[in-house]
Amino acid sequence: MFTLQCKSARDIRKHSFFPTEDEVLLMAATQFKIVSSLDQGDLHMIQLEETTPPFPLLQPVPIVGSLPMNSNPPGDPILTAIVKVEEKPETHLPKSQIDTHEVAAGTNNNIGINSITDSMSAVKISDATEKGSTVQDIPNQLRTNLKLLYELDEFTVPRCFFILPAKECEVNSIKDVKNGLPIHYKLYFLCECSDEPTRMHVAPRGGYSIKNSKQFFQRYESYLKPTLKIAQILLSAGNLDIPQLENVSIANNNTVPLEMNTLAYRQDMEQRLKFVDILVNQIDGKQTPRRGENLREILTYLEFVDDEHSLGKLDCAVTDDGHVRWVCPEHYDEISFNDNMSRYINDFKVMGGKFDQKTEEAIVIGVNVTEGNINMICDALTKGFNIVKLNFQDCSFYEGYLETLFDTIINRSSIRCLNMTTVRVRNYVGMVKYTCKNMVVELKNQSLKVRFNGTYNGNTSILGLILLRNKIHRTLNISAGDFLGHESDLQQCLQTNGVVTELIVQYFTNIAILNTILNLRTNVLHQLKLTQGLWISSILPPFWEMLTKNATFVEIDLMDHIGFKEETFVIKLLDILRESKPTKYLSLHIKDIQPSNKKETYLIKSLTDYSFISRLCISESVVSRKLIDALCIASKMRGTLTYVNFYNSQVNEEDKAELHSLYETGNLLQLGFYEQSRWHITVGESNERPSRGKSTKILNFILVDENNLQGKQQIFIGDSDPKFA
Fold this sequence. Notes:
The chain is an alpha/beta fold and 725 residues long. The chain contains 19 helices and 32 strands.
């Protein structure tokens, strides 16, 4: 079947022997170009578009008074025709027989067809095959699957995704596909900007490497089957633009992506999609139910390379029917603003709030928030009132009302940032129980980041309410400096948590705070990330004790922006983890490795003889051949090391190529070579990227004195004064 987009065609159905067919008349020697093709079983669809040749291929005889043949009359739309080609024995019938048989056949066998591209309109064609799905069934079935996915209200993970092999692949036989599981796959999210599968597009950020691909296929085949079809249709329409992950630098020039919509690009993408499609259909999956808790597990299969906990650079918006859409920044305003927004904004203003439609920020100042206010806000947030940033200043709440508000904001809203300044929390008799002096909560996918910007009496009480109401966020990011003197209360908050599995602690410059965290008695927390604190000598003894005795944390992340340079620290760390039971998997950033120095010797032994280093960053180092061999053994033979980045380090081209071969086979899921420092890549560039709902930069300075580890100051810098910044 050919889809023709014509400029010079004429609709001749009224003058044809086949009035039920979409028949057009083209001028002889009309030139077309192939735009795309799509194969669906026995049905082959090729999209052609009329082009203007560089010189006339045929000059028509001018006829006085007739319309020009090379253009449509003013106001005429460009015609789109669907032409069906079938291989049948050639027969010659008299005109009367053609009239009778063909018109009748066309009347009985016509079916509806929906467009493959945006510019096509609904037309009718005869059945392409006597068995199997019709052309109409393809988009209809996808619409049904999309509707089911959209009804899965998930506020932490986008629901529409597909996967591709990370390198070029060809499908030469079924054996090739069956052997395809061990290769490196990447996951891409789709922007949920439309109910029409043909109008969707790939999210602006993507390419998340997949760990344990065989288990991933078995678990998520029910999600992949419809979204792979969407990807195939988008490729056919020329809209499958595959993004490259930011902050990723691969070893050789062969990984530079092909220019989109070239013939080579389309052929490459077609092979990759075909490869995955056959593979998914051959796997005996577990038919995982489409539920939020199952979808959230997808993050355990992805290797992240950005510190923003961003998935596809998509944000969730609540539609007026109460469902959730994950959309890109370009389509966010289009999806988030609905017919009910004006009513919600007016109700919000009546209670004393203000709403900026341009920034989608809301602020409430000096209001004693009532039960009616809470009901109005919560109802609006779950039915299409999309707020990105919500501020409460000099307000008061009954504690029960605040719990209800937290429940909605954290689990069922589009809010990405909640600010509270001088918010008084009252008990049931109206007395002030505690005050929230200054709090910022950032919600991003599964990450829940809480900052109080200082130690105050109400901090742990507010944090306790947040953790009590949190049902979906599995990563908690806190600053140790916010809980000085309240260590026992913090410990109680964390031990009563039942959802958070990963704890990120920044600025842990106090021994009591560190002891509180390291001695938690909970079976839920398994991952611990510590940043900015282990360079203080008095902190190290309890840290070494935790590594030796604590059996709860099985993943330790010490991959901060600065890196560890001190030789004695690195050696003792590796020595302790070699003997740790159970095995603690380590993410580590090391600086200044030189050939044959002690750091290199201990690192090589840890990589070749043990299996606890899973992610490694190397900075300001000279990388020897021995270290490259050790990295290959840890990745390929032991299967533990999946992530390696080099920053401002010397690595020769042959060694880069060898590591890149491990990246292509899926042994290494992340491989990067950067000329800049890790701080510049992970912190400097993220500060330069604008973030929805934020307008102020905050610089934190930790003033360290080992006799008084409580100093902390902040400088607030407005975006309007770059010279000062």
